[in-house]
């Protein structure tokens, strides 16, 4: 099989960040909240093979995959209500993940090798209520303040009214549009290939690839174990957890459009043409 030639990428001009599990430790909190309700009804804790199917997908923590596994003796509506009660307790305790503060602060004042300003945006599957709970933590509030209001895309954003959730590219394309709509006079519109998506979930990586953007995958260590040996498929966006068609949007193995990092600490700015 012929190898795929790595493109000659332009320097990055925009960085688009997921939130849960990438910038803040809320993926572990989602698991804690689900486990507290599962325990109450005598069910086992949420295993990572199931957890991995829920990450990054709007409503994933209460969807068919979860309930088919959980077999709870209560209606979905009751589980949703009790899980939200747990989240109201624990989301305000969330903390930034290692390297998150440093990367966002650096990018806010960075340029690329063509002396162009680096722009940042947030694109999260969290709804407004959950976002506000998470942002009520002082450290998290300070972290998220790095994003301008109009460049902070939540799943309940009216601009996403007819959008599809990840792994569709819609939320990342809207994030890029929000940046382009607010560029300074004289700045040329940013193209998808000049964007770098930061994601922790597998559907999120696929969404970034479908948007024709470069992607950095920063997964939870338990997710790393879950996809051991399949990393190249993840980076190509070809795991296919949620089937949405449009296969032409997907990447190819070893095509150079995505890379995996163990954390945001020590992010290799130079690899993406960014000067800090």
In short:
This protein has 276 residues and is α/β, with parallel strands linked by helices.
Descriptive overview:
GO terms for molecular function: phosphatase activity. This is HAD-like protein. It holds the Pfam family Hydrolase. This protein is of the alpha/beta class. It folds into 2 domains: 14-25 and 94-269, HAD superfamily/HAD-like (Rossmann fold, 3-Layer(aba) Sandwich), CATH 3.40.50.1000; 27-93. Helices cover 36% and strands 10% of the residues. It is built from 11 helices and 8 strands. The protein has helices spanning 26-40, 48-54, 64-70, 76-90, 100-108, 128-134, 138-144, 170-180, 202-210, 221-226, 231-235, and strands at 14-17, 111-112, 119-123, 152-153, 195-199, 214-217, 258-260, 274-275. The strands form 2 sheets. It has a 6-stranded parallel sheet, sandwiched between helices. Strands 2-8 form a two-stranded antiparallel ribbon. α9 (202-210) links the parallel β5 and β6. The longest helix has 15 residues, at 26-40. The chain is globular. The termini are far apart. 41% of the residues are buried. The mean pLDDT is 94.
């Amino acid at each position: 099989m012929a190898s795929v030639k790595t493109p000659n990428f332009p320097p990055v001009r925009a960085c688009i960040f997921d939130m849960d599990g990438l910038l803040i430790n809320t993926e572990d909190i989602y698991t804690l909240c689900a486990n507290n309700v599962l325990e109450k009804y005598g069910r086992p804790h949420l295993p990572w093979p199931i957890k991995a199917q829920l990450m990054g997908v709007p409503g994933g923590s209460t969807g068919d995959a979860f309930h088919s596994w959980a077999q709870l003796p209560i209606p979905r509506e009751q589980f949703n209500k009790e899980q939200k009660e747990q989240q109201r307790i624990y989301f305000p305790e969330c903390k930034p993940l290692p390297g998150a503060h440093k990367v966002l602060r650096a990018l806010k004042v960075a340029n690329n090798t063509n002396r162009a300003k680096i722009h940042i945006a947030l694109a999260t599957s969290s709804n407004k209520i959950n976002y506000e709970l998470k942002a009520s933590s002082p450290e998290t509030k300070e972290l998220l303040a790095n994003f301008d209001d109009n460049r902070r895309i939540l799943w309940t954003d009216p601009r996403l009214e007819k959008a599809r959730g990840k792994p569709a590219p819609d939320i990342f394309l809207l994030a890029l549009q929000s940046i382009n709509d607010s560029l300074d006079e004289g700045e040329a519109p940013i193209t998808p290939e000049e964007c770098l998506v930061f994601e922790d979930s597998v559907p999120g990586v696929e969404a970034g690839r479908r948007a024709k953007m470069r992607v950095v995958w920063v997964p939870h260590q338990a997710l790393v174990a879950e996809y051991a040996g399949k990393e190249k498929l993840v980076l190509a966006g070809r795991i296919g957890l949620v089937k949405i068609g449009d296969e032409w949007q997907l990447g190819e193995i070893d095509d150079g459009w995505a890379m995996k990092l163990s954390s945001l600490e020590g992010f290799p700015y130079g690899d993406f043409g960014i000067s800090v």
